[in-house]
Amino acid sequence: MRFEAFVAGRYVRSRKGAHGSAGGFLSFISFASVAGIGVGVWALIVVLSVMNGFQKEVRDRMLSVVAHIEIFGAGAPVQAWEPLLAQAARHPRVRAGAPYVLAQAMLANGDAVRGAVVRGVVPTLETAVSSLTVKAGALADLREGEFNVILGVELGRALGVMPGDKVTLIAPQGNITPAGVIPRLKQFRVAGLFESGHFEYDSALALIALDDARKLFRVDGVTGIRLRVADLDEAPAVARDLSRLVEGDVLIRDWGRINRNWFAAVQVEKRMMFIILTLIVAVAAFNLVSSLVMTVTDKRADIAILRTLGATPGTIQRIFMLQGAVSGAAGTGAGAVAGVITALNLDVWVPAIERLFGIQFLAKDIYFINTLPSDPRAADIAAIVGIALVMSLLATLYPSWRAARLKPAETLRYE
To answer: Is the four-CA dihedral 249, 254, 255, 261 of positive or negative sign?
Structure first.
């Protein structure tokens, strides 16, 4: 292959064609095909890194509020949660657990009324299964009988309250009176505000003491138990193990099943974006076919002379395959380097662009997050580079085959 590589390298470095000005145009076409492959690889790496980062960021923010695994009653509250938690804790991958009561209610402050998901928790146990950032106050302020509440920061802003203010909680379970069903009202003191970074929870979740929730919503027992495992990626396997380990009429689900539709939608979107952006590389590969065909036409005399000197059709075919492969590898390498550099610095460049032009790419009241995260993964980069190289190699097959079929006598007759 030393001879083929030598000739292919000369053709790649050549900037002058056999027919005068045609060489400059051919060089431009070759450069455009290489640049197209580079741009396609760069776009694929950046887009997939952003989608990976988006999924990871939203997942991590969700799991600051959502448990890794939930055990809850099948159609009825769990009466005795302590034995149930003790059974689950026997699994070696379970790190902590906490009971909870979940209900929906309305929160009111003057004319401001908002629907909310109210979760009753035990503060000393809740800190082991969640990683909420309480900006003002602390979970320890949720003491039984004091009727304190910690609101999501966006929910508190919508109600216009700050720590120390009062809000009225309206429970859907009403009291039956001679005048009809009257909703039960209870005034709570805002003990703090938390921020998870996930708008859905920051705008609709309220935390109160477990016993206060049981009294207010008339729950005999608890809704279920929230568990944290050592590795969140092992949560599905741990949930399957717990289904055999835990006794009683309960249901078990992991964090992936809790948000199955969202994660499935992200995976489908990622695959579709991969397919769509791969077309950029495919188009660039067609350009590479065009440039190689033009090169074969431009080098007809050279090919004929090489054949008369003893080069076989296979040798000629390998020369042009190597030329196209080198061009494809150059574009792929440049695009991969540019893509990785861009993906690693998006968290710096995007905020700078937003400040420079006074714009915001992601509004937190529309999207789950308000920053553009990036998570370049070696597996994705390897797949992108591999596909680009394969496409580049496939693009060389027809031009190299056409070059190998040239007949020296007929070619030199007209030169």
So the answer is: negative
Buried b (16+ CB within 10 A) or exposed e, 312-330: eeebbbbbbbbbbbbbbbb
φ and ψ of 366, to 5 deg? -110, -45
E strand or H helix at 337? helix 313-344
Q: Are 310 and 410 in contact, with CB atoms under 8 Å apart?
A: no
| Residue ranges per structural domain of the chain | 2-61+262-413, 69-255
Beta strands of 354-411 (E only): which ranges? Answer: none
* Buried/exposed code over 268-295 (b: 16+ C-beta within 10 A; e: otherwise): eebeebbeebbebbbebbebbbebbbbb
- Structure confidence at residue 415 (pLDDT): 59
Residues 6+ apart with CB under 8 A from 95: 128, 228, 229, 230
Distance CA 67, CA 73 (A): 16
Q: What token pair was written down for 286?
A: 């067609």
Residue 226 CA to residue 214 CA, distance in Å, equals 17
In this structure, which amino acid lies at residue 159?
L
Residues 236-272: pLDDT tens digits? 899 989 988 888 788 898 888 877 777 788 788 888 8
Residue 133 class from Cβ within 10 Å (0-12 exposed, 13-18 middle, 19+ buried)?
A: exposed
For residue 120, the surrounding DSSP H or E stretch is strand 112-121
Task: Average the pLDDT over each of 19-28, 289-298, 406-415 and give the range with the smallest value.
Answer: 19-28
Residue 94: how many CB atoms within 10 A of its CB? 21
- Please list the residues that pair with 170 across neighbouring strands: 106, 185
Query: If 0-12 CB within 10 Å is exposed, 13-18 middle and 19+ buried, where does residue 186 land?
Result: middle
- What is the Cα–Cα distance from 30 to 19, expressed in whole angstroms? 16
Q: 239 vs 38, 71, 81, 127, 258, CA distance in Å?
A: 44, 9, 17, 21, 12
Cα gap 178→98, rounded to integer Å: 40
Asked if residue 212 lies in contact with residue 65, where contact means CB atoms within 8 angstroms, the answer is no
3-state SS class at 352: helix
Burial of 234 (0-12, 13-18, 19+ CB in 10 A): middle
Residues with Cβ within 8 Å of residue 215, at least 6 apart in sequence: none
